[in-house]
Structure formats: C-alpha cells, structure tokens
Design brief:
6-stranded antiparallel β-sheet, 4 helices, 33% helix, single chain
Length: 144
C-alpha cells in the first residue's frame, strides 16, 4: 500500500513538472494588452497606439518546412513551438513604429503568440515585401 502511494506521488510530481515546463516555457505573461505592450517595449519596440489585431490559430501537429524554419527563429529567442503542437493559441499583431533598422517611414508588425495567457513565441517583421523578420529579442541581441 505504501509503495502504491509513493508511486502515485512520483507520477504526480512528474506530471505537474511537465505541465509547468510546457505552460511555463516563458515567464512572460501576455494575458492583457498592457502586459503585451510592456513586453514589446522592453524589447525596444515603439508601438503605435492603436488596438492590436488578434486571430485564433492552431499550432500544427506536424510542422511543414516553413513551420520548421519559423520554429528555428523561435528557438533563437528561447521559445519552442513544438511543445504546443495541436494547441489553440491567439496571435496578437501590433504595429511597431521603431525597432532595429526600421526608419520612421517603415513600419513593422510585432506578432505575439499567446497560449493560456503566456507568450510562447512570435516575431517582429518588416511590412515591406521581402522585409526582414526578427526574433523576439532585444535588438542589441539580434546583432550578435
């Protein structure tokens, strides 16, 4: 009987730690507009004061080559979307006035992927055709 209780405790600890590993992939809370804007501001983004667009997505269960490449960008920021395969998320898109080498004439989009109120990935990309895409890091870190 004691052995069964011990096994249940060990299994419970393993399940709880895996749950927090997946949900806690980032400590960045993205459950409100203000928290998401603050996160982007800390990355060096100047956000245009307008509401964000949002859309529901599902992280694919199987990654295409495009998704594999995008996930490499995520991993460079410490995120990994493969942990969320098959999960429903919300992508919030903000207009960025200043970031990296974008000029005042150029605008960028900051996309934050949020799962259960946590930022689990995203990117900052130029609105120009063939524009650059940056990981969610401070600009100084993207130069290295």
């Amino acid at each position: 009987m004691l052995f069964c209780v011990f096994c249940i405790i060990v299994i419970s600890i393993c399940l709880v730690s895996r749950y927090y590993e997946v949900l806690g992939a980032t400590q960045e809370n993205g459950d409100t507009h203000k928290k998401r804007v603050d996160y982007l501001s800390n990355l060096g983004c100047e956000i245009i004061d307008e509401p964000a667009q949002s859309k529901k997505i599902t992280i694919p269960s199987e990654f295409s080559d495009v998704y594999k490449t995008y996930n490499k960008l995520q991993k460079s920021s410490g995120y990994d979307l493969s942990q969320f395969k098959g999960e429903g998320c919300i992508v919030y898109t903000y207009r960025v006035k200043r970031f990296a080498d974008f000029s005042d004439k150029d605008f960028a989009n900051a996309n934050l992927i949020v799962y259960n109120g946590r930022i689990i990935g995203g990117d900052i990309s130029s609105s120009k055709i063939n524009g650059k895409m940056y990981p969610l890091k401070k600009y100084e870190e993207t130069k290295t």
